[in-house]
Amino acid sequence: MELWLLAALYIASLAASIYLVPRLAGSPRWRHVFYGSMALIVAAIALAGLAVVAPLLFPVVWLTQALLGIRDYLVAFALLAAASAFAMYMASPHLINIFFSPRPDPELQRIVDAVSARLGGKVKAKAVVVEGPPNAFAYGNFHTGRYVAVTTGLLETASRDELEAVIGHELGHHINKDMPIMTALGILPSLAYFTGVAAIHLGLADEERPSLLAVIYGVVMIVISFVVQLLVLSFSRLREYYADMHGAKAAGKEAMMRALAKIHKYYSQNPDALEKSLKTTGFKALFIYALVNAAANPLIDITPDEMRRLMKQPTSLLEEILSSHPPIPKRLNVLEKI
């Protein structure tokens, strides 16, 4: 019964994020559908964790029980998941600072403060600049503080109102507490994946007598991590729509739409953008645009005709399912309707 319910929730979650939410944008029922879709996906991830991930994660959970003296299996599983998520949440800002080498910028800080005040002043964020083509991202936690990072390419490309819209989008991630929420939801596929990889390595450690059972178990765990990760990506795509609304509120929906379209055009002009983005693959979900680290002409502008063509551009279902961000044409159409 649990598996049938999980399958139904899984299909409904994907359908809601891909079809229902974008199509109903601007309608009186849209806000209820939007929040309902997020609740549906969270329920599907929770059920997947209890019905599938927790039982199959038994080697790690048993080890946790043995080390901590916990008798109840589900309590040990919950503690393992919570501790792993907290460790990832606390460590990620430090890893990002090491990886991107951000630097403070007084002028950008003034813009971030002004946009924050426009959004109600709920979040105080440190403004930093990182090297790279047009993009931006939000990161941080209660210990390190909250950051809004803007690339040098975006500072060169965006107009003032477009920059404010992008910053509003990133502040929206902080206002909506997307960093801890996404870390908590993403820990289940992460635990399944790394357990699977470890099992495969252990199974193949003895070249003379490899353990086929361990390898099969590892492959199953990696497949499960991928299946659950698709739900996490669905939730992430909805949070991007949510953050876009904050960008539109901060600087107007036209500015938010132009910013997204110009960034999309920038990367579309470079056919090697996806391959060159592999350096930052692990951080793709952070960015306002899903591709990073490309090189193209920074003098980008977007005409009304180009905007209309982009909004009518067909999107790939497979690419959307596998992405942490909705396709730009869908984001533009949702923004136009709200």
Report on this model:
With 338 residues, the protein is an alpha+beta fold. It has 14 helices and 4 strands. It has helices at residues 2-23, 30-56, 58-68, 73-100, 106-118, 152-157, 160-175, 178-203, 212-251, 253-268, 273-276, 304-312, 317-321, 328-337; strands at residues 103-104, 125-130, 136-141, 145-151. Strands 1-2-4-3 form a 4-stranded mixed β-sheet, with helices on both faces. Strand 3 (136-141) and strand 4 (145-151) form a beta hairpin. The chain is globular. The two termini are 39 Å apart. The model is unreliable at 273-279 and 291-299 (pLDDT under 50).
The main sheet comes to: 4 strands, mixed
The strand line-up of the biggest sheet is 1-2-4-3
Q: What's the SSE pattern? A: HHHHEHEEEHHHHHHHHH
In the predicted model, the low-confidence regions spanning at least 5 consecutive residues are 273-279, 291-299
Number of helices: 14
Radius of gyration: 21 Å
Instruction: Tally the beta strands.
Output: 4
Query: What structural class do you assign from the helix and strand content?
Result: alpha+beta
Outline? globular
Mean pLDDT: 90
